[in-house]
Q: What sequence folds into this?
């Protein structure tokens, strides 16, 4: 009887594994590159004037800078000028996060 209970338990575990299995999606490198490029185009269009701040600022600029998407130098110059203006307004402090400050 114990053998049947043990076999039944294993059968239920096996069925559970098949029913709840997680599908793994595979994409080619070309598909991944296309998604990255589409995202970069969207970010560049959406955040056309990058400001100081996490949303619409640092993360958009960093993401675009790290992608292979061609971003005109004017984009980065605009961000630089916005940071410079912000730092002057804050009298030399630019808080990037809770742990980082830039002292100009």
A:
């Amino acid at each position: 009887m114990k053998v049947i209970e043990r076999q039944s338990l294993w059968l239920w575990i096996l069925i559970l594994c098949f029913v709840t299995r997680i599908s793994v999606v595979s994409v080619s490198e070309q598909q991944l590159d296309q998604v990255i490029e589409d995202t970069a185009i969207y970010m560049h269009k959406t955040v056309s004037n990058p400001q100081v701040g996490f949303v619409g600022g640092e993360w958009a600029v960093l993401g675009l800078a790290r992608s292979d998407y061609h971003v005109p130098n004017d984009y980065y110059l605009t961000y630089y000028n916005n940071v410079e203006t912000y730092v002057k307004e804050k009298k030399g402090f630019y808080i990037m996060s809770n742990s980082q400050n830039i002292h100009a």
